[in-house]
C-alpha cells in the first residue's frame, strides 16, 4: 500500500512524421514535449477510489467494495484483498500485461456509472483509468524493466481508447526524447536538435479510431494509389531522421528549410489519405502567412498541428503567429521537443516549486 503522496509525470508528444503510415508498418518519428501531465496519487482509508481530472472536468468516486465485485477473472488476485484498499489495487507479475477484452470494457462501462450524455473523451478517460487501476501495481523506483512494463500498460490503455494503436504514442511518452518507431522496434535518435515548435489544438474533436479505419478503407479501395503514399511518408520520416542526425548543436538554416519542405509534403499526403480538416488547412494558411510551415500531428480530422519555429525568428513574430492562431479559436503553446519520459517526482520538491511559482505571481 502507498504510504505517502506520489507525484509522477509524463510528457505530451507529437509525431513529427509517419502518423497513419506507422499503423501499416512504416516508420514514425515521434518526440516528447516539454509540456507534461502530472498525476498525484494519495492514499486514504475511506474505502473509495477518487478520480479527479480537472482539465477535462472529471470528478468521480467509486466504492472499492463495488469494484471488488467485478468478475475475478478481470482482476489479479491481490486486487480482492482488503489490504489493498488504496489507490493502486493490485500487483501483477512483471510482464503480465493483458489486453482489454470487449467484455471487460462493457463491464467497466457499467461500473463507471457515467451519464448517457457524457462526452466520448471523458468516457474513454474514465474507462482507461478504471482498466489500468484494476490491473496495475505501483513501484517507486523505475528500472528499464519497469519502464518496459509501464510502456506495455500504457499501450493497453491506448487500446481502450482506439482499438488498434501502433504503439508509438505510449513509447515516446514512456521513454521521452526523440524516437524512431517501426512495428514495435524503438530507436532513440542520437543528440537530436532542440527544435522549438508551436503546438496548436484546433479544438475540433475527432475519433482516432474512425480516422485510422478510414485510412485502412481507402488503402483497400485504392491500393495502387494509397500504398505509394504510405511509402512516400515512410521516406519522409527517414529523410527527416537523417537531417535531424546531421543538425547537431549548430544547425544551419538550410537544414530547417529541408525540414519545412518535408512538413509541407507530408501534410499534402495526409490530406490525400483523407485525414485533413478545414481547421487544419486554416492552421497551415495562418502560419504560412507568417512564413512558417505546419502539418497535422496524430490522427488528424481536427485535433492538433505542429509548426516549426526557425532559429533567428524574433519573439514578437512568434507572438503575432500565436495571436493569429488564438483568434481562430485555437489553443496554442510554444514548446520544445525532446523532453524526458515518464518520471517520478518527490512530492515535497514539486509542491515547493508550485508554491514558489504561486508566490511569484
Ligand atoms: O491522435 P493521436 O495522438 O492518438 O495519434 C494517432 C497516431 C496514429 O498513427 C494515427 C495512430 C497510431 O496508433 O499510431
Largest sheet data: 5 strands, antiparallel
Low-pLDDT stretches are 76-94
The N- and C-terminal alpha carbons lie at a distance of 37 Å
CATH topology of the largest domain: Ribosomal Protein S5, domain 2
Apparent shape:
globular
- Estimated share of beta-strand residues: 15-25%
Kindly give the count of domains.
Answer: 2
Number of helical runs?
11
Descriptive account of the structure:
The protein is α+β, with helices and mostly antiparallel strands. The protein folds into two domains: 6-188 and 346-359, Ribosomal Protein S5, domain 2 (2-Layer Sandwich); 196-336, Alpha-Beta Plaits, CATH 3.30.70.890. It has eleven helices and eleven strands. It has helices at 64-68, 102-112, 120-133, 144-162, 168-175, 208-221, 223-247, 253-273, 278-288, 315-327, 347-359, and strands at residues 6-17, 28-41, 48-53, 58-63, 178-182, 185-188, 196-201, 294-297, 304-309, 331-336, 343-345. Strands 6-5-2-1-11 form a five-stranded antiparallel beta sheet. It has a four-stranded antiparallel beta sheet with strand order 8-9-7-10, sandwiched between helices. It starts with 5 loop residues before the first strand and ends with a helix. The model is unreliable at 76-94 (pLDDT under 50). The structure holds (3R)-3-hydroxy-3-methyl-5-(phosphonooxy)pentanoic acid (PMV). (3R)-3-hydroxy-3-methyl-5-(phosphonooxy)pentanoic acid (PMV) binds at residues 15, 19-20, 22-23, 165-166, 168-169, 208, 212, 298-299, 303.
Defining traits:
361 residues; alpha+beta; Ribosomal Protein S5, domain 2; Alpha-Beta Plaits; 2 domains; five-stranded antiparallel sheet; four-stranded antiparallel sheet; 11 helices; 20% strand; binds (3R)-3-hydroxy-3-methyl-5-(phosphonooxy)pentanoic acid
